[in-house]
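Pipeline run #58 for the internal structure catalog. This entry was flagged by the ingest filter as a single-chain record with no existing model, so it goes straight to prediction. Upstream metadata was stripped on purpose; only the residue string is passed forward. Reviewer on rotation: M.T. Logging verbosity set to normal.
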Amino acid sequence: MNSEVCNMIPDQRQSAHYKPNIWKFDFLQSLNSKYEEEEYYKSRAEKLKEDVKQLFVEAFEVLSKLELIDSLMKVCLSNLFEEEIREALDTIASMKNIENLCGVEEDLLYATALYFRLLRQHGYEISPDIFSGFMDEKGRFSTSKHTKIKGVIELYEASHLGLEGENILVKAKALTTKTLKCSVPSSALDSNLITKTVSHVLELSAHRRLYWFDVKWHINMYENDRDMNQILFELAILNFNMVQATLQNDLREISRWWRNLGLIENLNFTRDRPVESFMCAVGLAFQPKLSNFRKWLTKVIAFILVIDDIYDNYGSLEELQDFTNAVDRWDSKEIHEHSRNCIKLCFQALLRYDKPNCS
C-alpha cells in the first residue's frame, strides 16, 4: 500500500498510545507442527475414534454414559462424537425413572447434578425439581455427611445453568460455594486432584469458560485420574496436537494477510492485534472444520479494532461523517479530498477485503 504515513502529516491528532504488537511476523511464520502433514497421526486418530465409539456400547449404566460424555466434553472431543452423544442423551432423557442413576448413596448427588447439567447444556427440558430430594422440610439444601466432595462440585457447576426464577438452583449455588470455599484448605479432601479441581471451579465455573482454552488443564487432570481410560486419553492428546497444528496454520495465513493489507504501517495510531483477534475467534470455534469461519471472524475483529480507533481516537467529525457515508453507500467517492489519507486507506482496505480473493 503506497501512501504517506499518517504521523508525517503536520496537524496533531489524539492517540491512545497502545502498546506495540509483541507478535513478530517471522515468529508467527515459523510456527509448524509434525501433526499437520503426517498421515500416521490421522490414521491413528481414526482408529482411536472407533475405539471410543465402542466405549459408548460398553457403558451400560446411565452414570457411566454420563461420565463418558462429560469426559469427552472436557477434553474437547465431543465434536467428534456428536451423533453418539445425542443418541445417548436422547435415551437418558426419555427415562421415566431417574431414581436409579447410581447404586451408591454417596454418589447420588453427583449423579443427579451431572445428569441435570449435561441434559440442560444440550438443550433438553429438565426441571431443577430433581434436586428437591436433597432439601429438608424447610426448603434448605441438606447434604449427607456421606456425600463426596465431587457431588458438591458437580452441583456447583449445575447451579450455574439456572434460569430466572429457579430458586432451588440459587440456593444450591449459595450452599456449594460456601462448602467448597471451606473445603479448599481442609485435609478432609481425599486427594490433591480434588483440591486442584475445587480451586479451579471456584476461580471460574465451567459454564463461563471457553472449552479450548481450558483443555490442557483438563487433559493433565484426566491423566492423573485413577479412572482414566487410556484410549480416550491418547485420543485427547493426539486431537489436541492436530487441532493446534490447524490453528497454527490458520494463524500463519492471518499473519500474512494482515501484513499484506498494509494498514498498520500507515495507521500507526490503531491497535495492531491480529493474534488477539484470532484468539477471540478460536474461543468461539476451535474445530478444524471451521477454519474458514475462524479466519473470516478474525479479519472482522481486526478491522473492527482499527475502525473503532479511527472513530474514538482519531477522525474529525467531518471525516467520520464522510467515512460513514462511504460505508453506507460502499462508494469511495463519498470520502472527500479534505479527509486525511488514513481515512481513505482504511476504506480502501475494506473494499479490498470485500472482494472474493481477499486472503
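catalog note: The mean pLDDT is 88.
catalog note: DSSP finds 14 helices and no strands in the chain.
status: ready for reviewer M.T.
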